[in-house]
Design brief:
mainly alpha, elongated, single chain, about 80 residues
């Protein structure tokens, strides 16, 4: 038994969506933050931040390799004669 509050398919109609006029403004509002940032500006900032993080991780890895090589050299047994 169908719920009387839900309209049938025939009642919904086939109105075409009209994107002229105010609909473009609604889309711009939806894709823009309150500060005026758009998706492209946010993605650009994200790309820059990712590059900075990658550089820091690269330096951290170099430091860790140096620490590991020093620790490995200290643990290596000397020649026994």
């Amino acid at each position: 038994m169908a719920d009387s509050r839900i309209p049938e398919d025939e009642e919904l109609g086939d109105e075409e969506m009209d994107f002229e006029g105010g609909d473009e403004d609604a889309l711009v509002t939806l894709l823009t933050t309150d500060e005026g940032e758009t998706i492209t500006s946010v993605l650009d900032k994200l790309a820059s931040a990712t590059e900075v993080i990658a550089k820091h991780l690269e330096k951290q890895n170099m430091i860790l390799v140096k620490i590991l090589s020093v620790l490995s050299a200290a643990k290596a047994p000397g020649p026994t004669a």
